[in-house]
Amino acid sequence: MDKHDICCELISDQTSCHAVYEGGYTPAGISFEEGRKLIATNEALFKQKVDESLIRHYNVIKSLCTKGSRFWDYGNSFMASVFDAGATEIARNGINTNDGFIWPSYVEDIMGPLCFDYGYGPFRWVCLSGKDEDLRKTDMAATELIDPNRNSMDRDNHYWISTAEQNKLVVGTKARILYADEEGRVKLALKFNEMVRNGEIGPVMLGRDHHDVSGTDSPFRETANIRDGSNVMADMATHCFAGNVARGMTLVVLSNGGGVGIGRSINGGNGIVLDGSSRMDEIVKKALSWDVMGGVARRAWARNSGAVDTCSAWNDKHQNAGAITIPHPVNDEYLHELIDSDYGGMQ
Ligand SMILES: NC(=O)c1ccc[n+]([C@@H]2O[C@H](COP(=O)([O-])OP(=O)(O)OC[C@H]3O[C@@H](n4cnc5c(N)ncnc54)[C@H](O)[C@@H]3O)[C@@H](O)[C@H]2O)c1
């Protein structure tokens, strides 16, 4: 494409760079089988070939980008692997990965500002009865609960869930995924629990992907646009995990590595089994809210404007149920004026 000047608007890479030297990335010029043989017989040479190929790969993308392509990292550690291969210029500061890379991760560029800053993330439910009928009833309940006029996400969600069954995506477990926000997740969960209580459906298990608003700390992905220096800390995922345990979720997980590779992220998952009890209503109200808003708060502290608005709206709506600390950034200009006038000359 580069040689023949073929125009390409959007580029990403989806090789398994989370395990780049273990076979996730086959160097250009050798076959998959040859690569496997080389790993077994001469690991150092395989690694050298991977590094050479990654740098070639990077140079081609760079060239395509100068011709107008737009590249983003898929969240597979491609850019981190290019850095490790020796092309340190892919790091924004050219020295280390602390300030991110020259191109955005897709969370930084797409998922964060569109979804995660507002609490929207991959909420899931599974009808444990295994009945299509139960899934259909939950789809219908969700269609009724989502207001398509609330915002563009809910407009898409309303369309998605009202047409989900006809897309025939369910191949086994009677499960559904819907990008809901905190308010939406709590509403849906309470409705489903009520339906279980009334005997309309069997028990439902709620869950979500680890790749969500709060579940994961990864400076190469979920926390790539957390710019307050805390992007390299694992606090958010750990707080999310511990808070979910304390609030009584049925299943809570904290693990290492999801998507970007071992040592590069801490991530968690969870599940709540709705059995129709009022106890589960309480767990839903407390835990689901914690699970989502912890991440939105983190993104607000990092000064992401959508997240600040979402947290302020949450505070207004939950006057007696806690308060999320809102950042009040210093006005740099005012600070400089103050220093110049009162402390001029002081070093
Ligand atoms: N962003 C996300 O939400 C998300 C989700 C799932 C997976 N991931 C990550 O994305 C990566 C890919 O996941 P997957 O499930 O598709 O993996 P996969 O191993 O099934 O697919 C990777 C593909 O890349 C090909 N490949 C390897 N080296 C290549 C090269 N030099 N040039 C061209 N192709 C090459 C392989 O042949 C394979 O087909 C993984 O690192 C995974 O952790 C990210």
Characterise the protein shown here.
This protein has 347 residues and is an alpha+beta fold. Strands 3, 4, 5, 6, 7 and 8 form a six-stranded antiparallel β-sheet that branches. The protein has a two-stranded parallel ribbon with strand order 1-2. It is built from twelve helices and eight strands. The chain has helices at 20-24, 32-41, 43-66, 78-84, 106-114, 132-145, 152-163, 182-197, 235-246, 278-301, 305-317, 332-343, and strands at residues 10-11, 70-71, 121-127, 175-180, 204-208, 216-217, 251-256, 266-274. Helix 6 (132-145) runs antiparallel to helix 7 and helix 6 packs across helix 8. The chain folds into two domains: 10-103, Rossmann fold; 111-317, Urocanase superfamily (Urocanase fold, 3-Layer(aba) Sandwich), CATH 3.40.1770.10.
What is the total tally of β strands? 8
Number of domains: 2
Radius of gyration: 23 Å
DSSP helix count?
A: 12
Shape: globular
Structural class determined from secondary elements: alpha+beta
CATH class of the largest domain: Alpha Beta
Largest pleated sheet:
6 strands, antiparallel
Looking at this structure, what is the CATH superfamily of the largest domain?
Urocanase superfamily
Helix content: 40-55%
Mean pLDDT, to the nearest integer, reads 93
* Beta-strand proportion: 5-15%
- Looking at CATH, which topology of the largest domain would you report? Urocanase fold
Which distinct ligands sit in these coordinates?
nicotinamide-adenine-dinucleotide
CATH level-two architecture of the largest domain = 3-Layer(aba) Sandwich
